[in-house]
Amino acid sequence: MTHPVPRMTRPSRARVTEPGHRRLRTFAAETGLSEDEALTFLLENLDRIAEPTALARRLKEFRAARVDRPDAPGGDV
Question: Residue 75: pLDDT band by 50, 70, 90 thresholds?
Answer without folding.
Answer: very low
